[in-house]
Design a protein that fits this description.
3-stranded antiparallel sheet, 7 helices, mainly alpha, Arc Repressor Mutant, subunit A, 168 residues
């Protein structure tokens, strides 16, 4: 196989792995990867503000708010106004949310993060540089993307049948 084909096959494998894992998460938990990451962040931090959650999982506050709306509708999380500062709203897990997250499989990016972190720094930088070059070669360097590995709008529709935000 020539080098171009090898790169394209590797990219397709990454896309396919993300797709398959997202479908696995949806089938086993009924949740998306960003929803699981948000639940895990709430679990790990305890009562936490939306801004802190957004910073923790590297998503915008608007996206976190939308994801939290869906989790709240399913009874997995709640929002509570701060008693000390009425301007702040904290998120917390419900008992159902704790039960779901206790049994949820590890999101793909957590597995990747563990393995990537185990690499030597020079190897990490080589991978980052190569992938940034690939993104540039595909005219994708300006596309807004979060570090959450999820397939997004490819197969998701809300109950009204309209497209959802790719990370919800």
């Amino acid at each position: 196989m020539n080098p171009v084909d090898e790169v394209l096959v590797a990219l397709r494998r990454v896309i396919r792995a993300t797709d398959l894992h997202s479908k696995y998460l949806a089938k086993t938990t009924g949740l998306t990867a960003p929803q699981i990451l948000l639940l895990r962040a709430i679990r790990d931090k305890g009562r936490v503000t939306i801004g802190e959650l957004a910073n923790d999982i590297t998503l915008s506050q608007a996206t976190v708010t939308t994801i939290l709306d869906r989790l709240e509708a399913r009874g997995l999380a709640v929002r509570e106004r701060s008693t000390e500062d009425k301007r702040k709203v904290h998120a917390a897990l419900t008992d159902s949310g704790k039960a779901v997250i206790a049994q949820a499989p590890m999101p793909l990016q957590e597995q990747f993060t563990q393995q990537f972190s185990a690499l030597q720094e020079w190897e990490q930088m080589m991978i980052v540089s190569s992938l940034q070059r690939v993104a540039t070669m595909m005219d994708a360097q300006l596309i807004d993307a979060s570090p959450v590995l999820d397939i997004g709008q490819l197969d998701r529709r809300n109950t009204a049948g309209t497209d959802r935000h790719p990370l919800e």
